[in-house]
């Protein structure tokens, strides 16, 4: 598939391209690193019960699997993706102020639904800009993207200390301020024009290339990845609430979340040294087993008297249950999907991950309401289903890597 030619302007590298993209990634992930661990705590502080929290968390997930590919396709067709990015960040900042209004259930749900439409595309559009720099100018993607991981880690830890010294009511303020910082950084986004290849989640790319991906190996594998990932829904939705209920302070909760990210980054750094010769199916089986061990361990830590140290230990499994899933998926796509279909493959995997995560998040509210931390045990059969699908994928795996 031939790519459209670059215009003379697109051949000129913007000044300080890597620095500007690093700043965008750094500011982009602060709000995300605050929202995931602490937003459920804020919802609980407003008096919402577990089932309402689950709906507020899950409903946007269902919506964004539809809207995000449409908006990334819009960005692909726009005169410049940076303008779309700035507009979306500005809209996100304005809408996030809705959390300052009287927090009725209907209001918070409506704001969350509106927010997810304009918030979720930030990352894939930023990735698209960075990858254009990689293709056109030889920029180092990892060197730029690492600042997103660093800022996410810092947001996890710093957010906990801020809440410890203030209160959980500071969560909307932190999100609003961090989005304002992202908007300032977005104004510095390099102008690169239209991409030569569709963004990873582009609806156009999925529509054109998806039929060629409908083979048993790809479908079983991506379904398995989506379901193993979805077994983390109970963790993301309710572990901060659980930790607070047993008297763990906000600062320690922040450190526990941050430790999981540290473990994930370590796996990214050392994966090739440890698992370079391991097949992608075995990588995913290890990740699924790590998930099961994690969900067995969580309800036992506090009753067995292992305390906070035990939770740090189980959070270390984030390196297996999350990082190895992410790496394994990309490894599978790289080995079996031709280059012109990689964007569609990413989009289909995103849809499966998003849909199953939303479904399990929705179920997690009643589980926590009735069983508390023992709701983690319900994540075990979900992870087992994911493992079974990976096993079916192994039986239909291609004998040779894809021809480039």
Automatic annotation (TrEMBL):
<feature type="transmembrane region" description="Helical">
    <location>
        <begin position="107"/>
        <end position="126"/>
    </location>
</feature>
<feature type="transmembrane region" description="Helical">
    <location>
        <begin position="375"/>
        <end position="394"/>
    </location>
</feature>
<feature type="transmembrane region" description="Helical">
    <location>
        <begin position="283"/>
        <end position="302"/>
    </location>
</feature>
<feature type="transmembrane region" description="Helical">
    <location>
        <begin position="82"/>
        <end position="101"/>
    </location>
</feature>
<dbReference type="GO" id="GO:0015528">
    <property type="term" value="F:lactose:proton symporter activity"/>
</dbReference>
<feature type="transmembrane region" description="Helical">
    <location>
        <begin position="350"/>
        <end position="369"/>
    </location>
</feature>
<feature type="transmembrane region" description="Helical">
    <location>
        <begin position="171"/>
        <end position="189"/>
    </location>
</feature>
<feature type="transmembrane region" description="Helical">
    <location>
        <begin position="53"/>
        <end position="75"/>
    </location>
</feature>
<keyword id="KW-0813">Transport</keyword>
<dbReference type="GO" id="GO:0030395">
    <property type="term" value="F:lactose binding"/>
</dbReference>
<dbReference type="Pfam" id="PF12832">
    <property type="entry name" value="MFS_1_like"/>
</dbReference>
<keyword id="KW-0997">Cell inner membrane</keyword>
<keyword id="KW-0472">Membrane</keyword>
<keyword id="KW-1133">Transmembrane helix</keyword>
<feature type="transmembrane region" description="Helical">
    <location>
        <begin position="147"/>
        <end position="165"/>
    </location>
</feature>
<feature type="transmembrane region" description="Helical">
    <location>
        <begin position="308"/>
        <end position="329"/>
    </location>
</feature>
<feature type="domain" description="Major facilitator superfamily associated">
    <location>
        <begin position="20"/>
        <end position="371"/>
    </location>
</feature>
<feature type="transmembrane region" description="Helical">
    <location>
        <begin position="248"/>
        <end position="271"/>
    </location>
</feature>
<dbReference type="InterPro" id="IPR036259">
    <property type="entry name" value="MFS_trans_sf"/>
</dbReference>
<protein>
    <submittedName>
        <fullName>MFS transporter</fullName>
    </submittedName>
</protein>
<keyword id="KW-1003">Cell membrane</keyword>
<feature type="transmembrane region" description="Helical">
    <location>
        <begin position="217"/>
        <end position="242"/>
    </location>
</feature>
<dbReference type="InterPro" id="IPR024989">
    <property type="entry name" value="MFS_assoc_dom"/>
</dbReference>
<keyword id="KW-0812">Transmembrane</keyword>
<feature type="transmembrane region" description="Helical">
    <location>
        <begin position="21"/>
        <end position="41"/>
    </location>
</feature>
<dbReference type="GO" id="GO:0005886">
    <property type="term" value="C:plasma membrane"/>
</dbReference>
<dbReference type="InterPro" id="IPR026032">
    <property type="entry name" value="HcaT-like"/>
</dbReference>
């Amino acid at each position: 598939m031939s790519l459209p030619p670059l215009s003379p302007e697109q051949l000129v590298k913007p000044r300080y391209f890597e620095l500007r993209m690093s700043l965008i990634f750094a500011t982009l992930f602060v709000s995300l690193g605050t929202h995931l661990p602490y937003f459920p705590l804020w919802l609980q502080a407003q008096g919402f019960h577990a089932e309402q929290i689950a709906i507020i968390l899950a409903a946007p997930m269902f919506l964004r699997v539809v809207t995000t590919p449409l908006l990334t396709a819009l960005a692909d067709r726009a005169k410049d993706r940076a303008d779309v990015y700035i507009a979306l960040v500005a809209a996100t900042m304005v809408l996030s102020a809705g959390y300052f209004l009287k927090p009725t259930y209907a209001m918070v749900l409506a704001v969350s639904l509106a927010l997810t439409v304009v918030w979720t595309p930030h990352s894939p559009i930023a990735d698209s800009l960075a990858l254009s720099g990689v293709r056109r100018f030889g920029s180092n993607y990892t060197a730029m993207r690492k600042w997103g991981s660093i800022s996410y880690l810092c947001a996890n830890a710093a957010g906990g200390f801020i809440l410890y010294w203030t209160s959980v009511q500071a969560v909307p303020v932190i999100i609003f301020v961090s989005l304002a910082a992202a908007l300032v950084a977005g104004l510095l986004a390099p102008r690169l024009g239209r991409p030569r290849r569709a963004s990873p989640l582009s609806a156009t790319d999925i529509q054109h290339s998806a039929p060629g991906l409908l083979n048993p190996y790809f479908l079983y594998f991506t379904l398995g990845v989506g379901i193993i990932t979805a077994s983390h829904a109970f963790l993301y939705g309710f572990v901060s609430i659980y930790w607070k209920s047993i008297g763990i302070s906000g600062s320690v909760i922040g450190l526990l979340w941050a430790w999981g990210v540290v473990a994930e980054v370590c796996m990214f750094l050392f994966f090739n040294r440890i698992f370079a010769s391991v097949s992608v199916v075995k990588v995913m089986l290890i990740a699924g087993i790590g998930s099961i061990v994690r969900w067995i361990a969580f309800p036992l830590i506090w009753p067995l008297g292992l305390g906070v140290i035990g939770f740090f230990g189980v959070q270390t499994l984030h390196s297996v249950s999350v990082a190895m899933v992410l790496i394994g998926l990309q490894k599978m796509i790289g080995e079996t999907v031709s280059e012109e279909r990689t964007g569609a493959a990413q989009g289909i995997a995103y849809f499966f991950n998003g849909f199953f995560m939303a479904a399990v998040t929705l179920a997690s509210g009643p589980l926590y309401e009735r069983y508390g931390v023992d709701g983690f045990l319900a994540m075990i059969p979900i992870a087992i289903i994911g493992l079974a699908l990976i096993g079916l994928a192994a039986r239909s795996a291609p004998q040779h890597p894809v021809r480039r």
